[in-house]
Design goal:
homodimer, about 600 residues, 3 domains, eight-stranded mixed β-sheet, five-stranded mixed beta barrel, 17 helices, disordered N terminus
């Protein structure tokens, strides 16, 4: 080994020097964040992952050569300096190194830099596309860098908690088998098995169930999954799951275990102590919030008004299956124009409501509604009473077919919260939604399909309903909802071959189809499958919410855009004819 | 929530009851490992991941119904029992629960099992193919289960050590871009970008370098990588790497950091304290062991004999570039027949030596060699002296062209170690091999290619040799070798655009090719790339060696066979015509 190998680039990083280091000889390396050149004196902010340290080049104390070289520096140059830690004349108490600066004696330029296409600042002037193309510069910015560090901290704590609770992380394969069930698979042609394909996993679902049959007892994995879907905004073709499964458990064991996981994460990563999570059934969530992922950071729970709104001549309400509304605290201050905008919003085809009725609860104790023609003050007083509204509030009301109107009002509730800034990204309101329907009716195909997946266990008391009243069957299935987002979902699985067969029948799988796609799982169930269940969390979403931001792309190091492209590496891209020949494929014309 | 949800399947697992639990009422669940039916008394070994607990059903103390049900149990049935912990009449001190048994009062069969196709024992009667087809049963066996737990423990400790040392785990994308450099890529057709393909990463090499440009400073990831190679024995198309990169480092920083990682793993996972790792140059390794991954668990270092073997009339030696051998301690006990077998072994075309010469160092102090016709006792005494051999040893000698004969003798050294059982799987001998050649001459294509990859930095003192004497250029490249296996390898990377261009020139990349394949990395290098370097470990191999076994398949939950098939799920498999249409591909005829 030659001595050169032992040379270092730094004695400290750019975030660690303090007043206690005064007079120390130090060596630093990093990027030039900012240069202030006063002629006889020159300051450089030197940046690395850990922070910023101010360097000072001073005609009186720094050699002429070093000053001359310093004057050639530009933004984002990579430099290495030696110098002495001195006290700053004007301290900056906003940064941790703000009491000191380094008087530079030696300067080496390790690499020059072109002027970056956008500023490396917390608020960058780069647009989304430019930032993605130069993602390696975007990551130098604190917000993105901090997001990636947050992600690291969260995954470390997930692993710590689960390992401490006897879970074993097992890697399941990425080159698996295509199954038409669920979303579209990405397929991978096999060269060695001509004409055959692997598929990339949409989730390790069957493998984690096999691991339970294999006796692993408690499994987890932080794992990439793949879905070839037409991308909606903020969906990625590859995404990361915290995937978990346990044997010999009932639903409550799983809720307890993973409620504690989420509490552990918030406590250890964000120093936030969460209370016990509320539990709500699917039916309650739909009734009270018009969605199975209610945001509990704000109120506006639904009030059903049928009994106080259907006794008069107002036909719109009378012919509606459900009249339902919510109170906006202080909403009487909304102007007529603002209310008109909400009315237009609910009438857009994406929402599809016929109109929006409202009642103001005025400060003088009287009521003013959009349906005054049909209802008198005593009617309206009833509405106020039943809805718990107070002076200064407003009641928004929709009516129509039960399922539809709840969905519409749920969307309006979220929209109002957005408009009135009721979503505090520093407040975290988790809840469990349980007792999901087992099956979902598909209007298009006129068949039932599995609401979660075909391995979800019906509630034992509902098993007999599967053939007679499928829509009424509830499952041992649960979602963990956080601030209006589903961040996790799972179920107790079917471990009984006959119930599984019943389920496949109900979903319209022939015996052959079921055998072809899931035969290995069905076979495994013949050899002593334990009762088991699990849950999977969407890591990208969880990290984004914990980071106080809902754009998941900002929490993924190298995300793809809405067309599934990585614009930095320019992928996907054509491959050579030779490569196609090797895998025995050609492009259709 | 109904009360049923709160029922549990167990109060304890099958590995935790002890004498201190006597008289406790317990509930256990698990698999029936073994049944001994004495008519009036019946014992069942109940197994789960954590251990085995003996259950006792006793005519005098267990109800008739329960005994009757117990008599219907078969191997691998999943059962749930309630009972009382009692002292065993005949204790089994080989297992941790061996002092107690559970007197069963209630028994429930949770799931029956067909008779498994092989025994669930440490030494199974199942052949490789059967075990792979029923991998979920194979994993129930202790050796495989323990391997997966070892793998979990190792990855947890890797993450702990690296996180504690400020490394950030960053997930890099799986859907990337195909590059013809290196091994063959698996490609993934893009449906949304018709005619275009993603590729699965062979390693995150370029992304980790981009993360250094991005200022992440210290990166790691435990990540799946993919290579579409014709599979040699014990190679997998998907494999796992511990991938690491650091900025502002010299080679020695990296060696120190990762030597300490490996020491941390051995200490914390296996309670073994490793000494400082020896460092050997590539040239030394080749000279002394005929390989760049020497196994240091045994001696047999090479002794060059040119100066004491080329002065006589033995033309075989005289016309050889190199005469070289090694001492086998106690090898004089080898019979003539055994030596003949070694001779045949080296003459096989896979090795290709002309023959094997030897010299016995006999107990009476005399020498007996296969070349006595040409060399007298004083010549042979010189050989003995130079080789450090002692009475009772044997010296094996090969001769020929320098590079070839070293490779042949290196192979013979490993073969002798295998034959004489010199490889103790409980002994661990790591070493660093450094100063690898930058370039490797390819006889077939008559070109140089990169020994590691095109981003490896030449030693700074050798940069000028790249154009004039490429074969002499040494790189800042290093391998970590353990017990004759390369378990890690890495290098300092080129961070200078011009040296990178020089390297591409030398490798015969045109500017266009380099730009097309690595343009985004070259672009990134324009914006302030720091000096950086890294290393990647093959996790599968590392875990296998730490587990004392060299078959990596035994350390992967769901491995593929030598044709890249998963025989359990029967993958790869054909996909529907419809799926092919969607990705705009068809099979060639």
């Amino acid at each position: 080994m030659c001595a050169e190998q032992y040379l270092m680039y730094r004695t400290h990083n750019c975030g660690e020097l303090r007043n206690s280091d005064l007079t120390k000889q130090v060596e630093l390396s990093g990027w030039v964040q900012k240069i202030r050149d006063k002629g006889f004196i020159l300051w450089v902010d030197l940046r690395d992952r850990y922070g910023i340290t101010q360097l000072i080049f001073d005609q009186e104390r720094t050699s002429k050569e070093v000053i001359e070289l310093a004057k050639t520096l530009g933004r984002e140059f990579v430099i290495n300096i030696k110098g002495t830690v001195i006290e700053r004349a004007s301290k900056n108490l906003l940064i941790e190194t703000g009491e000191i600066e380094v008087l530079v004696s030696d300067l080496k330029i390790l690499n020059a830099s072109k002027t970056p296409p956008f500023t490396i600042e917390n608020e960058s002037d780069g647009g989304e596309e430019l930032r993605m193309k130069y993602r390696y510069l975007d990551i130098r910015r604190n917000p993105i860098k901090d997001n990636l560090i947050l992600r690291h901290n969260i995954t470390q704590e997930v692993r710590k908690y689960l390992s401490d609770n006897s879970f074993i992380e097992v890697e399941t394969p990425y080159l698996i088998k295509s199954t038409p069930e669920g979303a579209r698979d990405f397929v991978v042609p096999s060269r060695m098995n001509s004409g055959e394909f692997y598929a990339l996993p949409q989730s390790p679902q069957t493998f984690k169930q096999l691991l339970m049959v294999a006796g692993m007892d408690k499994y987890f994995q932080i794992v990439k999954c793949f879905r070839d879907e037409d991308l909606r905004a903020d969906r990625q073709p590859e995404f990361t799951q915290i995937d978990c499964e346990m044997a010999f458990v009932k639903q409550q064991n799983i809720l307890d275990t993973f409620e504690n996981l989420v509490k552990h994460l918030f406590l250890n990563v964000k120093q936030i102590k969460l209370d016990k999570f509320p539990v709500m059934t699917y039916d309650q969530a739909i009734e009270k919030y018009g969605t199975d992922k209610p945001d509990l950071r704000y109120g506006m729970t639904f009030i059903e008004l049928n009994e106080v709104a259907k006794h008069k001549d107002f036909n719109v309400f009378n012919k509606s299956e459900l009249v339902v509304g919510f109170i906006i605290k202080g909403g009487d201050s909304l102007t007529r124009k603002e209310i008109d905008k909400y009315t237009e919003w609910v009438k857009r085809p994406q929402i599809g409501a016929g109109g929006l009725a409202y009642m103001r609860l005025q400060d003088d104790g009287s009521y003013k509604s959009s349906v005054d023609k049909f209802y008198d003050q005593s009617d309206l007083a009833n509405w106020a009473k039943i809805s718990g509204g107070e002076k200064g509030d407003i009641l928004f009301i929709l009516s129509g077919e039960k399922d539809k109107v709840r969905t519409q009002l749920g969307a309006l509730r979220v929209h109002v919260a957005n408009e009135l800034n009721l979503k505090d990204s520093n407040v975290f309101k988790p809840l469990w939604v349980v007792d999901f329907p087992l099956l979902q009716w598909d209007e298009e195909t006129k068949t039932f399909h599995a609401m979660h997946h075909p391995f979800t266990s019906p509630k034992s008391k509902h098993i007999d309903l599967i053939n007679t009243e499928p829509a009424a069957v509830r499952a041992d299935a649960y979602d963990l909802v956080l601030n209006g987002n589903e961040i996790g979902g799972g179920s107790i699985r079917i471990h009984d071959k006959e119930i599984q067969q019943k389920m496949f029948d109900c979903l319209g799988f022939t015996k052959e189809e079921a055998k072809k796609q899931f035969g290995f799982l069905m076979n495994a169930f013949e050899y002593g499958a334990p009762p088991h269940g699990g849950i999977a969390f969407g890591l990208d979403r969880l990290v984004a919410i914990m980071g106080g931001n809902e754009i998941i792309r900002d929490f993924i190091a190298f995300p793809k855009n809405n067309s599934g492209r990585d614009v930095m590496i320019d992928s996907p891209s054509p491959v050579s004819e030779e490569q196609l020949k090797e895998i025995n494929l050609k492009t259709r014309q």
